[in-house]
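New to this. Please check this record:
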Amino acid sequence: MDKDLISREEKERLLLKVQRHLSDEAEVELGRFEAEALVDLVAALIGPFYYNKGLRDAQALLARQVDQINDALYEMERLPET
């Protein structure tokens, strides 16, 4: 996992949650290194999907806001006096 993505403390909490979940739900005991390897693998496999979805959501939000600005500018237009 990218070291700059999350802090060391956040990663430690994540690893503990993964270890606890696998222990409770699947009765699988993982050491810290195995849990870290699993988290890194999952991040590499599905991370891009979430990242791209976030980009698409941001693009849609930006497009809506640009449309609102364009509408407001259109309303401000003045017609020539006749």
